[in-house]
Write a structure and sequence with these properties.
By secondary structure, this protein is of the alpha+beta class. 55% of the residues lie in helices and 11% in strands. The longest helix is centred in the N-terminal third of the chain and has 22 residues, at 58-79.
């Protein structure tokens, strides 16, 4: 099967978790994949659509599929029996994605998948207003349900107003685009990057404790400083200040965001181009 339809994530997210532990679900997915065909680039998008009626673009679809597999495992442990992949998928979207309107679930009349615009589409999601809050709420619910660690990083560009005034707003916009690309290459596929406001961004880190988040924040700080030296007019590079925190079991999304923002603001007063953490 994997030789007929090789694609990124097949072995890790389909074959390994399903082939031996739930052969019926594995056979269902194989049948759906054979219907999709090897020429289709968006396998996870279509699998989710066929199983639940939900439409997601491919990067979001892969992230949701990971959560569905985790949800399946959690349900099986809780119920002490095998839970089918479709049941796990429907339960995931019903219980763990409350921000989305619950839709009618069907496998009989699939809708055509949404078109993918790769890099442009990914950038559009990063800049979508409210995306950060929707995703943070979703990840907090999932972390609390499965008792997983959840951390986040908030960052902004040092002296960005001065950069805009000195080098023009056009250069400032280019810097933000480059910053997003640097962050994307530094974080994992499952991590979620969103624009918080202006030149401020947030990265949501599922299954990540504060120590791991601090290490990532420091890598980001170094990568941004080094790689932006290549930009015209920025021989010294751009620096960023970052705040890091791990969500507690009692945190709401708004409380956690406020703490991240307060630490970032206070940190910038103490010294920029640094990483600060919520105590």
């Amino acid at each position: 099967m994997s030789n007929e339809l090789p694609f990124d994530g097949y072995k890790e997210l389909i074959q390994v978790p399903l082939e031996h532990s739930d052969p019926k679900s594995f056979d269902l997915i194989k049948r759906l994949l054979l219907e999709i065909g090897s020429s289709q680039p968006n396998h996870f998008s279509i699998l989710i659509q066929r199983l639940t009626g939900k439409n997601y673009q491919n990067r979001d679809a892969m992230m949701h599929w990971r959560h569905i597999i985790e949800n399946k495992d959690g349900l099986q442990k809780m119920l002490s029996r095998t839970v089918g992949i479709q049941t796990a998928a429907i339960d995931y979207f019903t219980q763990l994605a409350p921000a989305e309107e619950n839709s009618f679930f069907t496998v009989d009349k699939p809708q055509p998948p949404q078109s993918i615009k790769s890099e442009d589409d990914w950038m559009e999601r990063v800049y979508t207003p409210g995306y950060h809050l929707e995703k943070l709420k979703e990840e907090i619910l999932r972390a609390k349900r499965y008792k997983h660690a959840l951390s986040a990083i908030m960052l902004d560009v040092d002296n960005f107003r001065k950069i805009n005034e000195t080098l023009t707003y056009k250069i400032g916009d280019q810097i933000l685009v480059v910053l997003v690309k640097i962050i994307r290459k530094t974080i994992r596929t499952v991590d979620i990057l969103t624009r918080y406001s202006g030149d401020r961004f947030m990265i949501i880190l599922p299954n990540t404790n504060k120590r791991e988040a601090m290490e990532l924040a420091e890598r980001l700080r170094q990568n941004v400083s080094e790689r932006t030296k290549r930009l015209q007019g920025l021989s010294t590079g751009v620096t960023i200040t970052l705040s890091v925190g791990q969500c507690s079991k009692d945190d709401s999304s708004t409380d956690f965001l406020k703490r991240l923002e307060n630490v970032l603001v206070e940190g910038k007063k103490r010294g920029r181009n640094s990483v600060y953490s919520i105590q």
